[in-house]
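Supplementary Methods. Inverse-folding protocol.

Structures were first reduced to a discrete structure-token string of length 261. This string, shown here, constituted the complete conditioning input.
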């Protein structure tokens, strides 16, 4: 339930946040955001693979995230789908120079093999995520995707890089990836190339910035940024726009990062 906050009632809060969405959901946003990486590609599979890999390392300094994501693409010959499906053992060895914080070359190589498994045996990323979708949540679907992704041989340490909402995670990075792929965005930021999943099912990528802003606005009361907090935030945002609740990610992020709200 929305709490009256910052001197605004529900209608005023919706108007305020809608204005912030318009302000930040523009192509200018792309230049400073990791979403610029998949925007380099035209092929659907290149877009979704580059987006999945980029979102998987999207924590920490944004410039470093972007630079390391560009490096990932370069190591795959800037043809991510072709590399995933056709790589040789020697080409995988070339990935051993890569590291982003705790995501190391072994994780990168496992992700490449996991993606090939998804495309060869589960009809691709969109089909794998769409299989267990629900009307107002993708969280069970994320958990089931995680199981499919790690059907291949893998080190246990790599599993921490794919969050599990059923184990209490807010799954910020995967929810961001799903926003990129699913949300129908007339402004040209999000891609909307996955037609089998409704934007109404999406969840806001919950992190320190969006969580703090949401609490100040009365959209969220829970202190931890976990799965329970995500469910609470989702419910609040769906009261503002049930068809496109995750559009408010732009407002919460912009207020937190750019305006220090």
């Amino acid at each position: 339930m929305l709490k009256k906050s910052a001197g605004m009632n529900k209608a005023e809060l919706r108007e305020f946040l809608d204005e912030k969405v318009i302000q930040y959901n523009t192509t200018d946003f792309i230049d400073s955001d990791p979403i610029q990486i998949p925007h380099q590609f035209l092929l659907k599979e290149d877009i979704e693979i580059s987006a999945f890999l980029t979102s998987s390392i999207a924590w920490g300094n944004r410039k470093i995230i972007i630079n390391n994501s560009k490096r990932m693409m370069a190591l795959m010959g800037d043809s991510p789908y072709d590399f995933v499906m056709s790589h040789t053992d020697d080409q995988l060895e070339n990935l051993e120079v890569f590291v982003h914080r705790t995501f190391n070359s072994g994780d990168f190589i496992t992700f490449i093999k996991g993606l090939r498994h998804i495309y060869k045996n589960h009809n691709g990323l969109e089909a794998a995520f769409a299989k267990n979708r629900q009307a107002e949540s993708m969280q069970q679907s994320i958990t089931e995707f995680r199981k499919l992704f790690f059907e291949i041989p893998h080190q246990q340490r790599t599993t921490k890089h794919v969050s599990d909402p059923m184990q209490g995670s807010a799954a910020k990075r995967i929810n961001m990836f799903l926003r990129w792929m699913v949300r129908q965005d007339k402004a040209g930021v999000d891609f909307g190339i996955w037609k089998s999943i409704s934007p109404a099912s999406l969840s806001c990528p919950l992190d320190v910035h969006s969580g703090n802003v949401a609490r100040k606005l009365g959209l969220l009361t829970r202190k931890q940024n976990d799965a329970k907090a995500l469910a609470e935030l989702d419910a609040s945002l769906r009261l503002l726009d049930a068809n496109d609740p995750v559009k408010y990610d732009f407002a919460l992020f912009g207020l937190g990062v750019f305006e220090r709200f």
